[in-house]
């Protein structure tokens, strides 16, 4: 049994959940404890008790501990990557890549712990100095999703600890294995009891207990828009600080002057890799009419060559979707698209493989318009819709015609159009001739509209959420 980690000790939960491999349902990854509301409250109180001393630890102490965590993650990246692939369904290469990113994030924030910014300004009044400093927020509740089971926890936990906060971490109930291993690494690094706590379990139990507790000072959440609204309501009701990353319906614009191979590479990687289970996935392909026929034929040829199979098999491009609920959702949207009048050009079917798993062929719709549900709603699967446009201005208007605003991409050889798109795309991240789904760990991550709420994640911009600003005056 894999237990919760509370106040420096491993604690059995009140119930347990079996973690299954979506590539092979006969493969039990492990059995993981489920905390209840009382255990969650205990973790929060433990974090509160540890908060004062940890906030006053030295920057070097925090840097050393975070660096130790990053070093163990990187040393074990093949092992942890294999576990991640087993429980989430990413290919082994993607799993190892994600683990590598998690280790790099901890290493980055080890350095940031030594670079917490402040200011000392010249006096506006004679004899009175003004100083601006950043201090930790306090106890941070972290709620992470299932699609990046170690990287997203890393980019929330590492800055929280670097800036002197204590942490109560609830991973996605569907994929607790990577989170449990990360907690084990943190438990061995040398943090004082209560500084970091892991409570696994259902969002309706553990997550709600975190949101309702008066000693959670800030909540960082990544998940669906519907759940995000509930998180925001609960946090604001208590006047707790809140940061949320939610959905996306990201456009990739392909202009007539685009390099065809580059455009197809961007679309395939962005729309279908990691089974399309990324909030940054290119789910709307907005293609100018002059290149549309060639782009469509090239897309179909590439999609036919993709290998969908067990995530740990060599040569596999795409693994299974994460569970039966996601598989059923993909199928519902295939039916919705057809009912709306779109043409299913390729894919969109359950697949049978040697092992019993949740396999689904990447799907591409044509004859789409931006009012269709398949072009408005986040599917969170390997399903893309192609929309034909006459020119750049129409493409930009359609790209911005969405409730979301996380990532937007354009493929073009025109510096004029690329520059204009970067300035005018209503998204938090803009990509030119690269996939919408590729992001780095040392720069800000986040979007606009229904995609994000609150301060940005990652990079030094993480300080905006995980610290609070104090202005001090001193009379000479």
Automatic annotation (TrEMBL):
GO MF term (any one): oxidoreductase activity, acting on the aldehyde or oxo group of donors, NAD or NADP as acceptor
Signal peptide: none
Coiled coil: none
Stretches assigned to the Aldehyde dehydrogenase domain: 10-471
Keywords: Oxidoreductase
Active-site residues from the entry: 245
CDD domains hit by this protein: ALDH_KGSADH-YcbD
Homology family: Belongs to the aldehyde dehydrogenase family.
Protein name: Aldehyde dehydrogenase family protein
């Amino acid at each position: 049994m894999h237990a919760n980690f509370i106040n420096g000790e491993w604690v059995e939960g009140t119930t347990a959940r079996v973690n299954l491999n979506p590539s092979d349902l006969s493969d039990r990854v492990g059995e993981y404890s489920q905390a209840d509301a009382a255990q969650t409250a205990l973790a929060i109180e433990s974090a509160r008790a540890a908060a004062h001393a940890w906030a006053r630890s030295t920057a070097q102490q925090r840097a050393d501990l975070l660096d130790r965590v990053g070093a163990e993650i990187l040393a074990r990246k093949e092992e942890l990557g294999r576990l991640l692939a087993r429980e989430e369904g990413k290919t082994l290469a993607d799993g190892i890549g994600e683990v590598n990113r998690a280790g790099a994030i901890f290493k980055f924030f080890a350095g940031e712990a030594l670079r917490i910014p402040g200011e000392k300004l010249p006096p506006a009044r004679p004899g009175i100095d003004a100083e601006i400093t950043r201090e930790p927020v306090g106890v941070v509740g972290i709620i992470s999703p299932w699609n990046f089971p170690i990287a997203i926890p890393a980019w929330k936990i590492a800055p929280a600890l670097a800036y002197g906060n204590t942490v109560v971490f609830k991973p996605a109930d569907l994929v607790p294995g990577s989170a449990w291993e990360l907690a084990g690494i943190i438990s061995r690094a040398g943090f004082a009891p209560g500084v970091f706590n892991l409570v696994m379990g259902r969002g309706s139990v553990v997550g709600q207990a975190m949101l309702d507790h008066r000693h959670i000072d800030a909540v960082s959440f990544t998940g669906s828009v519907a759940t995000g609204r509930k998180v925001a309501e609960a946090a604001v009701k208590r006047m707790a600080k809140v940061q949320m990353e939610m959905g996306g319906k990201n456009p990739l614009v392909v202009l007539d002057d685009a390099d065809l191979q580059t455009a197809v590479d961007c679309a395939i990687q962005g729309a279908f890799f990691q089974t399309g289970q990324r909030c940054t996935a290119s789910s709307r392909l907005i293609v100018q009419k002059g290149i549309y026929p060639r782009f469509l034929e090239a897309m179909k040829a590439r999609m036919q060559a993709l290998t969908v199979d067990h995530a740990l098999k060599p040569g596999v491009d795409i693994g299974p979707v994460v569970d039966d609920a996601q598989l059923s959702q993909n199928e519902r949207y295939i039916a919705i698209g057809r009912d709306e009048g779109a043409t299913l050009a390729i894919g969109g079917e359950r697949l049978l493989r040697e092992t019993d798993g949740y396999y689904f062929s990447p799907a591409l719709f044509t004859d789409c318009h931006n009012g269709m549900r398949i072009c408005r709603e986040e599917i969170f699967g390997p399903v893309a819709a192609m929309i034909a446009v006459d020119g750049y201005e129409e493409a930009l208007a359609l790209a911005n015609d969405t409730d979301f605003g996380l990532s937007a991409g354009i493929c073009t050889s025109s510096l004029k159009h690329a520059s204009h798109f970067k300035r005018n795309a209503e998204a938090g991240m803009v990509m030119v001739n690269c996939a919408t789904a590729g992001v780095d760990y040392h720069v800000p991550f986040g979007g606009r509209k229904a995609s994000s709420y609150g301060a940005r994640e990652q990079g030094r911009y993480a300080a905006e959420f995980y610290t609070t600003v104090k202005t001090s005056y001193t009379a000479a």
